[in-house]
Specification:
Elements: E1 28-32, H1 36-47, E2 51-55, H2 62-71, E3 76-78, H3 80-85, E4 89-92, H4 96-104, E5 113-116, E6 121-123, E7 129-131, H5 137-144, E8 149-152, H6 159-163, E9 173-178, H7 181-193, E10 197-200, H8 207-217, H9 219-222
Parallel strand pairs: 1-2, 1-4, 2-3, 4-5, 5-8, 9-10
Antiparallel strand pairs: 6-7, 8-9
Length: 248
């Protein structure tokens, strides 16, 4: 197994083309990480009326300050710890290899919602991607922050699509997985306001499936079939009243 050094936090794509809707509730969102993913999501959150604070190892760096300026007048940058402590929601947008250390350095996260966009992936011997952990990144993050509400989201969305939804023709689905229903509802409000179709995919253990979806999604790219790339869209099932639940 070869170690994959590229940041594979978001890797699929998705969005409808209608304009963003201002959030019904304005939160302070700490975007932990100022790379491609954080740099795409932070300005989008600000467009919805949220206050964005970037958590960075080097908050005074020119690159970070340019991102703050691009995000808007209410945006700021601080250490990762300071950003997390003042936030209602945390957007985790760091490389998987750094995630455990980052989580443990954020301080007390009890009661906070962590939006997890990471994917625990490696390069396999055949040159394709594979999941690198026995469970999932989402489940491990929940175990490292047991008092927080981890919601798997955005892990199957390409950062360029996050920044410019008009690049996609038609809806794309962002599934959510997490153990707390209210936390998922709050994240779903944000995701939907950004122009995505979203579904509740179940508890955090379903992150195993969602992270595996990234492996499947990127197969054409890793085989050089760039003209065959595709996006996820879960078509709603027709509502019927006579459907019985599966027997247990």
């Amino acid at each position: 197994m070869k170690k994959l050094t590229a940041v594979l936090l978001l890797t699929v794509a998705t969005v409808t083309t209608f304009s963003p809707v201002l959030a019904a509730v304005s939160d302070t969102i700490a975007v932990i990480g100022t790379g491609r993913v954080g740099g795409a999501l932070g300005p989008r959150f600000a467009e919805l009326g949220h206050t964005v604070v970037y958590g960075s190892r080097t908050p005074e760096a020119d690159r970070v300050q340019r991102l703050v300026a691009r995000t808007g007048t209410d945006a700021s940058a601080a250490s990762q710890f300071e950003a997390a402590q003042q936030a209602d929601l945390i957007m985790l947008a760091v490389p998987w290899d750094a995630t455990e250390e980052v989580i443990k350095n954020l301080g007390n996260l009890d009661g906070k919602i962590i939006m997890d966009a990471t994917n625990a992936l490696d390069m396999a011997d055949d040159g394709m991607l594979e999941v690198s952990v026995d469970t999932s990144a989402g489940e491990l993050i929940q175990s490292w922050a047991p008092g927080a509400f981890v919601v798997k989201t955005f892990n199957n969305v390409n950062d360029t699509i996050m920044a410019d939804p008009a690049g996609i023709d038609g809806p794309v689905t962002v599934p959510l997985a997490g153990n707390n229903l209210e936390a998922k509802k709050r994240v779903q409000e944000i995701v939907t306001a950004m122009g995505f179709h979203s579904v509740n995919a179940g508890p955090i253990r379903m992150a195993r499936v969602l992270e595996g979806m990234v492996v499947l999604k990127l197969a054409p790219m890793f085989e050089g079939r760039h003209d065959e790339r595709w996006e996820y869209y879960f078509r709603p099932h027709p509502q019927t009243s006579d459907v019985e639940p599966p027997a247990r």
